[in-house]
Write a structure and sequence with these properties.
Strand content: 5-15%
Strand order of the largest sheet: 1-6-5-2-3-4
Distance between the termini: 68 Å
CATH architecture of the largest domain: 3-Layer(aba) Sandwich
Structural class: alpha/beta
CATH topology of the largest domain: Rossmann fold
CATH superfamily of the largest domain: HUPs
CATH class of the largest domain: Alpha Beta
Number of domains: 3
Length: 403
């Protein structure tokens, strides 16, 4: 494949390429490039939003280039201020280790991790002395740092910016020096950080990295970027049925973006899909189910995805119960006078993470016990073996009473 053909494949759908001519020149040298991607373990699960740049890493891998996957166990203590309107609480070492523990396994669902370099940025920062940090900080000005949109907004609105946050772009940029990156890729919100990386590499007498970003995947709510903290995410390790159901819940207007970013469809192919839907040749529900099946098969298997699709049709199109569902075992210790608070039941079943979320679901009419809707959040209810708790469209639990 010629360098020009590689360039066309690698830059398809990118939001920013800084600078395409530099990337082409690097490709023409005929040597494997070092492609940097960093992920701070601020949460334990990767989601489909993370998969967008990671899938681009896979393309580089398939073309013979070397992926450098940096787990930001050091930068993760600070937390990336990109898009933040207030300072994040700093994470503890225990939280960082717990969140990072499964990252390699999750990334392995997309990348060939045996062929990638998996590194932790604490490897070089643990050795960095105060004099080294001062030297790094000397290469950037406060004025340049305040050009960052979210920092500028916070200054205008009088919202504090910690010195640690100001250091974050520099510390992330130094990662590029440490691994001698040829290219850094990520989401479009990272553009400022990546450009700082180019400047810092120059300061350390290295050829600046090429910067490549892709659009941020919109979450299942249809409005904000996919984020676990916003509850609008689809985890890449979620069971196929849960993954399929969440994809079926996305607004129709998100389908073009999902087809392009998750299935690597070209703009022409996406336009053709939209035309088929608008002309009535393809029903939106079928297009969404096709999307959900392909995505679920990517992270599980074609057979698991097909079963998830059949199960979804049975449960949601025909009103049947799932053939398999989690069992919730309750004993006398869980009851009070033979009854259980509905909110406690929902949380104990794992159908909500907090009492507040469970209360909200009850108020929204999203909770049913067998065929009865439960709409009173203070209700104490009787349950028996075989009762089916249903929360929303996708969460079920079969109740088993123990002695």
């Amino acid at each position: 494949m010629t360098p020009e053909e590689q360039l066309e494949i690698l830059t398809a759908g990118a939001t920013h390429v800084v600078v395409a001519e530099e990337l082409l020149a690097k490709l023409k040298e005929g040597q494997p490039l070092r492609i940097k991607y960093g992920a701070d373990p601020s949460a334990p699960d990767l989601h489909l939003g993370h998969s967008v740049p990671i899938r681009r890493l896979k393309q580089f891998q398939e073309l013979g280039h070397k992926v450098i996957f940096i787990i930001g166990d050091y930068t993760g203590r600070i937390g990336d201020p990109s898009g933040r309107t207030k300072t994040r609480p700093m994470l503890s070492d225990e939280e960082i280790k717990r969140n990072a523990a499964t990252y390699v396994e999750q990334v392995g669902k997309i990348l060939d991790v045996e062929e990638a370099e998996i590194v932790y940025n604490s490897q070089w920062y643990a050795e960095m002395k105060a004099a080294d940090l001062l030297s790094l900080a000397s290469h950037y000005t406060v004025a340049r740092m305040l050009e960052r949109d979210d920092f500028a907004l916070r200054v205008r609105e009088g919202i504090p910016i910690s010195m640690v946050e100001m250091l974050y772009p520099l510390i992330q940029a130094y990662d590029s020096v440490a691994v001698q990156a040829d290219v850094e890729i990520g989401g479009s919100a990272q553009l400022f950080n990546f450009l700082v990386g180019r400047d810092i590499m120059r300061a350390y007498s290295l050829t600046p990295q090429v910067v490549m970003t892709w659009p941020l995947l919109v979450g299942t709510d249809g409005h904000q970027k996919m984020s676990k903290s916003l509850g609008n995410y689809i985890g890449i390790t979620e069971p196929p049925g849960e993954m399929f159901g969440k994809l079926m819940s996305i607004p129709d207007e998100l389908m073009p973006q999902y087809y392009e970013l998750l299935l690597d469809k070209t703009p022409a192919e996406v336009a053709q899909l939209q035309q088929a839907i608008q002309s009535g040749q393809l029903h939106p529900r079928q297009a969404k189910a096709d999307l959900a099946e392909v995505v679920a098969s990517t992270y599980h298997s074609p057979e698991a995805a097909q079963l998830a699709r059949a199960e979804f049709d049975d449960v949601f199109a025909q009103g049947k119960l799932p053939t398999e569902m989690p069992e919730l075992v309750l004993g006398p210790q869980d009851l009070a006078a033979g009854k259980i608070w509905i909110v406690k039941l929902i949380v104990t079943a794992g159908c909500a993470e907090t009492n507040a979320e469970a209360r909200r679901l009850v108020r929204q009419g999203a909770v049913r016990l067998n065929d009865e809707a439960l709409t009173e959040e203070s209700a104490e209810i009787e349950v028996k073996t075989g009762d089916i708790l249903r929360v929303g469209k996708r969460r079920f639990a079969k109740i088993i009473m123990s002695e």
